[in-house]
Design a protein that fits this description.
The protein contains eight helices and 15 strands. It has helices spanning 16-25, 33-58, 76-92, 156-159, 228-237, 256-266, 285-298, 329-339; strands spanning 63-67, 73-75, 95-100, 107-108, 119-127, 138-146, 168-174, 178-183, 188-194, 199-204, 215-217, 249-250, 269-272, 302-304, 324-327. The structure holds 2,5-anhydro-1,6-di-O-phosphono-D-glucitol and manganese (II) ion (MN) (2 copies). The site of 2,5-anhydro-1,6-di-O-phosphono-D-glucitol (AHG) has 11 residues, from strand 5.
Length: 344
Amino acid sequence: MQTGTRVEEIGAFKTLEQFIIERQEQQEHSTGAFSRLIRDLSVAAKIVNWHMRRGGILDIFGDTGEINVQGEVQQVMDALAHKEFVRTLKRGGECCLIGSEEHAEAIPLRANGNDGGDYIVLLDPLDGSSNIEVNVSVGTIFSIYRLPEGFGTPTVEAALQKGAEQVGAGYVVYGSSTILVYTTGNGVNGFTLDPSIGEFLLSHPDIRIPDDGTMYSINEGNYNSFERGLKQYIKWMQKESPEEGLPLSTRYIGSFVADFHRNLLKGGLYMYPSTTKNPSGKLRLMYEANPMAFIVEQAGGAASDGHTRILDLEPEKLHQRTPLYIGSERMVDTAKQFLRGERD
Ligand code: AHG
Ligand code: MN
Ligand code: MN
């Protein structure tokens, strides 16, 4: 992004709506339905952002006292973000089924036969929610599939498609500014919300992740329960060896979406491996790993469960978890070599 842009030049930026329409016009036979879906998601993000910016004053930070489907404490903002996304997608009419971290079952929106659109949206309405109360960046992550042929009334089975089948994916970070980043399989673009005009403006066109990075992100408090290869990889990254570009730096926010966003722009690797507490990893395949894997690959990076490409994993359940290694391609490759025991 160009720095020091003068305020009166704000009109020079392309809005998200203009960008979507331009892209749509380039596609033959486009009905505009997908563009409307992205528009709806961006509207929901603006509403959640509105809540977030007032949260401290309105006393809507803190927990609900409920435990969600993941067995985790639900924050008031988790529930609110879920409600706003469901409501906006329902009203928009392009989505037929929602799968959300905050709801045990998939939510069908196609009530009678054919009204409701052809897209399935899986989402983490609020990622990093334990960070809300302390003013640290949080976000939303979404994954989009087309409803496969033969599903009159969509059920959860319709949503259980491999990540490689996604037709779109994106995330929003509610941070020092609010940014929406998305892909439809044709590169990755980022739009910063200008609160004064209420528009997302194209601030980060055609994002590419550096092939290599100097930062790694992992909850090292779990070190003792990591597998041997991962422990060796971490020790290698901490080596005092300037000629090899080592040691690397640790950056771990505890909001996947924010850690991912930083690593996407600067180069880096995010890892949530299997641990004693979470033997299959902590992050969810369908609405955390898959959408970010689609984005990172589109930006030139890589995503793996340590052995298999994330986008090739066959899903079995809406809320299933997966170990995750995601970021700069060379760093993911090195991690895999250590995990396979090829290096020490
Ligand atoms: P969520 O708030 O949607 O439940 O996700 C929290 C996730 C992720 O954002 C973060 O990177 C990770 O949990 C942090 O887990 P640890 O506290 O175990 O490191
Ligand atoms: Mn999350
Ligand atoms: Mn969440």
